[in-house]
Automatic annotation (TrEMBL):
Domain Gram-positive cocci surface proteins LPxTG residue range list: 7-43
Domain of life per record: Bacteria
Keywords: Cell wall, Membrane, Peptidoglycan-anchor, Secreted, Signal, Transmembrane, Transmembrane helix
Entry keyword annotation includes Signal: yes
Pfam families documented for this protein: Gram_pos_anchor (PF00746)
Entry-linked InterPro entries: LPXTG_anchor
Organism for this UniProt entry: Lactobacillus colini
Transmembrane segments: 20-37
Name the UniProt record assigns to this protein: LPXTG-motif cell wall-anchored protein
Keyword Transmembrane: yes
Length: 43
């Protein structure tokens, strides 16, 4: 396996779980924001 093209991996499983948590947080925040804007526009 050629690791030269990749960035150095320091705790790959930790980094991926943190990245997934960040993606989930971003998705939830954007969905909540969309619903919030829809509710504001109705009133």
């Amino acid at each position: 396996m050629n690791h030269e093209s990749k960035l150095p991996q320091t705790g790959e499983s930790n980094n991926s779980s943190i990245r997934n948590a960040g993606i989930l947080t971003t998705l939830v925040s954007s969905i909540l924001a969309l619903f919030g804007f829809k509710k504001k526009n109705k009133n």
